[in-house]
């Protein structure tokens, strides 16, 4: 019996409609009917009652359904574990993370973590949904994300395991004038509107900064100049002198030293962010002496041995 026959049966059982199941399985109805019949011949009894609409499972089909679901789930889980184990044994660790962390945080962090210069890392820059999909499928073993206590913890809800590996501060910055003064001080000196470079409202950093912006608007108006979910895009706009953006401080250290950007406003205008590492539930560490430091810490904390949820309070979904 082929795995695809079980997947065909599960599609029909879920959708209760052969036409919709054909679309889901990317085949013609005649081909799907033949494959369901082949499964029934192998199993020995009819599994689907074709005389009703929508189609129904026979009593034997209803009894077979949970077994088929378990078989398919177990096979794919075993496959993910085998892939993860093979890749770990081969020396390559795969990470998914937001673009900004891939650029400013991961390179130095990885250099500090690895004890063997030959240890390889592969990075995929992705949003939160993609990171979760990559981890659950076994395509990536780890994900790095921002966390904040005011934002719901989406990754922890997915039962992925994690630990804090860093922190940064989201600070308001402006381009500087020739004499080193902020082009857009916070609050505005002339009492006018502050030109705002904002994150998309549905992004993680957009949700973090929304409360900060709301508080500022009680004191002076804000004029939205540019909006993006990407930290890098807001950084470019800030450097061009288009307005004030809230950027991770670790990402703009070079610009702060060079005097091309300056922090504006009071300390309460900033927001602290934690950086968390989440591990795939299928990842199996090998315990070699030259393994990266974070794997040892994950093992000591139980994060790579137990399947409990992470305890971060808020997780990035874009950035």
Describe the secondary-structure layout.
Blueprint: H1 3-15, H2 18-25, H3 29-43, E1 48-49, E2 56-57, H4 59-89, E3 92-97, H5 99-113, E4 120-125, H6 128-137, E5 142-147, H7 154-157, E6 161-175, E7 194-199, H8 204-217, E8 222-228, H9 231-239, E9 244-248, H10 253-258, E10 261-263, E11 271-279, H11 293-301
Parallel strand pairs: 3-4, 3-5, 7-8, 7-9
Antiparallel strand pairs: 1-2, 5-11, 6-9, 6-10, 6-11
Helix pairs in contact: 1-2, 1-3, 1-4
The ordered string of helix (H) and strand (E) elements is HHHEEHEHEHEHEEHEHEHEEH
Amino- and carboxy-terminal Cα gap: 45 Å
Quickly count the helices.
11
List unreliable stretches of 5+ residues.
Answer: 303-313
Largest sheet: 9 strands, mixed
Structural class: alpha/beta
Per the principal axes of the C-alpha atoms, what is the gross shape? elongated
How would you concisely characterize the structure shown here?
This protein has helices at residues 3-15, 18-25, 29-43, 59-89, 99-113, 128-137, 154-157, 204-217, 231-239, 253-258, 293-301, and strands at residues 48-49, 56-57, 92-97, 120-125, 142-147, 161-175, 194-199, 222-228, 244-248, 261-263, 271-279. The chain has 319 residues and is an alpha/beta fold.
């Amino acid at each position: 019996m082929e795995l695809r026959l079980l997947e065909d049966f599960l599609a029909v059982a879920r959708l209760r409609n052969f036409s919709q199941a054909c679309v889901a399985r990317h085949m013609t109805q005649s081909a799907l009917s033949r494959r369901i019949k082949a499964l029934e011949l192998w199993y020995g009894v009819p599994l689907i009652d074709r005389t009703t609409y929508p189609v129904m499972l026979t009593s034997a089909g209803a009894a077979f359904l949970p077994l088929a679901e378990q078989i398919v789930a177990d096979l794919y889980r075993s496959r993910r574990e085998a892939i993860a184990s093979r890749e770990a044994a081969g020396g390559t660790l795969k990470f998914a993370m937001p673009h900004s962390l891939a650029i400013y945080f991961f390179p130095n962090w990885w250099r500090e973590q690895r004890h063997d210069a030959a240890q390889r890392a592969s990075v995929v820059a992705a949003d939160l949904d993609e990171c979760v999909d990559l981890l659950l499928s076994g395509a990536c073993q780890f994900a790095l994300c921002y966390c904040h206590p005011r934002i719901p913890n989406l990754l922890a809800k997915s039962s992925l395991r994690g630990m804090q590996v860093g922190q940064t501060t989201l600070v308001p910055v402006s381009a500087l004038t020739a004499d080193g003064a902020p082009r857009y001080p916070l609050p505005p000196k002339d009492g006018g509107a502050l030109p705002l470079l904002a994150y998309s409202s549905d992004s993680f950093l957009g949700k973090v900064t929304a409360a900060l912006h709301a508080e500022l608007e009680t004191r002076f108006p804000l004029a939205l100049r540019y909006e993006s979910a990407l930290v890098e895009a807001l950084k470019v706009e800030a450097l061009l002198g288009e307005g004030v953006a809230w950027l991770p401080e670790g990402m703009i250290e070079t610009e702060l030293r060079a005097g091309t950007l300056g922090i504006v406003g009071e300390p309460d205008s900033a927001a602290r962010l934690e950086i968390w590492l989440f591990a795939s539930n299928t990842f199996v560490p090998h315990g070699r002496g030259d393994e990266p430091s974070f794997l040892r810490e994950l093992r000591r904390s139980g994060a790579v041995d137990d399947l409990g949820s992470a305890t971060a309070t808020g997780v990035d979904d874009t950035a």
